[in-house]
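Quick one: examine the sequence and fold tokens given here and explain what the tokens say about the fold. Here goes:
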Amino acid sequence: MQYRRLLNAVLASVTAATIGTVGSPARADHGGATFDTLYVFGDSSSDNGNLFAEYGSLMHPTFGLYYPTGAFSNGPVWGDYLVDLGVAAALDNRAYAGALTGSYGEPARMGFETGLLPTGLQTQIDNFAGGIGGGDLVGVWAGFNDYLFGAQFGLDNAPATVVGNIAAAIARLGGLGAKHILVFQLPDLSRVPLASFLEPAQARQLGSASAVHNALLSARISTLRRQLDAEIIVIDIFAVMSQIVGHPNRFGFTNATDSCLLVLADGQTAIPNPFSPCVVSDGGTPDNPFDDLLVPAGFVFWDLLHPTTAAHRVLADFTAATLASKAFGSATYGSAIDDRTGSGVAVSMCVDPADGMWCY
């Protein structure tokens, strides 16, 4: 109830904001890309192998088996795809799986630590050496670990605190020279496969927390646009993931409910989800699930929280189209036919610059 009251109060005070007018990035030497380097800060929604590179030797062998690139997916994630799409010429990914929006990361589910790691959003910025150029793009996506796991460490995970941390990170990045910043909302956490394993009241609370978080974040971004010499755009992940989950066939998916993998209580032992049609038995013994085959084509979710690489590609397409519709950094990509969907159906990207609507 308190989430609902706060959500209503925030939504009543938040109006659509436009991006401030800022000089576009230099166009001289991007190699055909709109931006020089895409810098990414965040958690497992963005990590393309950083946690695994540092701690993989301590993790269960099944992690390397089922997360082959070190990312929490079955392949590249959204940042990798933005570079492929020509949004940026290079990628510098600083995100760490398990990162909270403060200074620490949540490692307990990984099985190799019982406390917190210095891998949180603020620490990622602390460890960033050098400056960010006017021709670079920065992406920030964090928050869901705070709501899912922060309480178990006694951390303040009220939406106002979590959003305050993200706002502080954006301001710090602006101080490092960032002129073009993407800030990702949270998806509706009540609609990820994990929610089906929770009590209905818990799932609803996660959904409310997501909505409050996003409303507060939009309000803080409106303030930051007035304070920083930077253009900032919010990527509406809540909307795009709700559309994908609600209408998977429109995006070339066939299953937006099940996950291909389950992660056991130790937080790092992955097994094929025996309840999922993604799993095809090899005919072997039922007590050896690691030999079962996985067929993720058509699946939105790889595990209980994270999208498949195909879904990450859709998120990247949506992000690129959103940037193009806003002429963000004088973007010239997006709004193009994309025929790489799992079903092979051509998809027409479009984002209406008048009201922010988008379509496939």
